[in-house]
Amino acid sequence: MWQAYHSVSSLDEALALLAQHGERARIVAGGTDMLIELERGQRPDVEVLVDITRVPGLDSIGQQNGRIRLGPLVNHNHVVGSELLREVALPLVQASWEVGAPQIRNRATIAGNLITASPANDTITPLIALDARVTLRSHAGERQIALADFYTGLRRTVMRADELMTEIEFPAMRAGQRGIFLKLGLRRAQAIAVINLAIVLDLDGDRVKRASIMLGSVAPTILRAENAERALVGQTLDAATIEGIADLTAAAPSPIDDVRGSAVYRRRTLKSLTRRALRLLAAGDQAEGLPQDPAMLWGPQGALVKAGLPAARRHGAEEEIVTRINGEEFRCRSGQHKTLLRWLREDAGLTGTKEGCAEGECGACTVLLDDVAVMACMVPAPRAHESDIVTVEGLARDGGLHPVQQAFIEHNAVQCGYCTPGFLVAGASLLAERAQPGEDHIRQSFTGNLCRCTGYYKIIEAMKAAPALRKSGPEAEVGHD
């Protein structure tokens, strides 16, 4: 894993560390990709991690002079939950909703999604369609680059080792503009795109003045369907035009051929996806399928930075991690180079949190970190320092079971039991967020939790019954005494 882990209290401290360590250092904001790669031994060159997740103000979403600005800690759930972005950047909200599950969206940042530079990453396509640009800062200065010019190839960008992406900005969509993002995956949730596309249209009445059609996961980088864009200008979105544009869009790329789909399959489904997107835009139904009030599992602070660190801290091999686990202080001088999952099991002795996949796919390791549901396998152990953690062992309080635990017992929602801790923690987080969650909220909150015994029906029944099992009188929130 890594040799040194730095939790910084300011961007200047982070930039100084990047300047000092160069290619050997990486920024941790969400860290959801980096942790998996380090665990697999795919990043032997990375020795130093620089954690910026405690720097206040980096998770802001704002609008100034008609432009939207996103800070480097804005995560996918922040975007999904932003009323401003739903009004003026719908394709980005739709793309963010498609990323992972609540536990991942609570950690994974938009900036990180851009920097990883996979053409299958969902937020790149709509942001290029929205004419986004990014700000890169180093000790040497600052530069702004159009996102369309940011990529040089598969997982390659113009970003230097000493630079940090400090802002993403783009013009807010105006009246007369319509946009949409659609994605085809091999399953309903937690799916990497087989293809995705984003379309933004400027309309003058019923006619298209300008079109931006961006295609993802069909080539090593995001592609622009230029012929289709030109052909749309001056046209109305009638059936014949839509069919013709769908043909032109599908003819634009020479699709990649990989394990998620053949080139032939990609070309055919790209035509179908384009046709569907244009039909929705023509009908003004571009927001179809996006939930208005989704389950977030992000705690009372909305996964925002609660308080910054008073000073930077280097977590070396023998530096003490001081945290609160299930309401009690815990101190430990080992496990500095582990994931939070392994640290909880091996160093804190809390084996209720399970390892099913170790890559954020199964949800068995779900815990609450500062009230926010996360996958412990995708969080570095030093992030626990001066934090508040709740594991499945901490759900039961005052000698009684949590309502979700009791409901799982009464409704026989436990089979082999391996996945159960993750379901319980996610369910408890949902119940703290909503007194009476509906079935849609229950299903949304469990998109990141897999049960190989196929016990989903019983699990959903148990969650429906859990609110009625609350104790009479006010009940403490999950994670608090």
List keywords for this structure.
30% helix; 5-stranded mixed β-sheet; 481 residues; alpha+beta; 5-stranded antiparallel β-sheet; 20 strands
Structural notes for this entry:
The longest helix has 21 residues. With 481 residues, this protein is an alpha+beta fold. Helix 9 packs antiparallel against helix 10 and helix 13 crosses helix 14. It is built from 16 helices and 20 strands.
Number of helices: 16
Count of extended strands: 20
| Sheet of most strands | 5 strands, antiparallel
Helical percent range? 25-40%
Query: Can you tell me the residue ranges where pLDDT is under 50 for at least 5 consecutive residues?
Result: 472-476
Protein structure class: alpha+beta
* Global shape: globular
Average of the residue pLDDT scores? 95
Question: What is the gyration radius calculated from CA atoms?
Answer: 23 Å
What portion of residues belong to β-strands?
A: 15-25%
Query: What is the strand arrangement across the widest sheet?
Result: 4-5-10-6-7
Query: Cα distance, first to last residue?
Result: 35 Å
Write a concise synopsis of the structure shown:
This protein is of the alpha+beta class and 481 residues long.
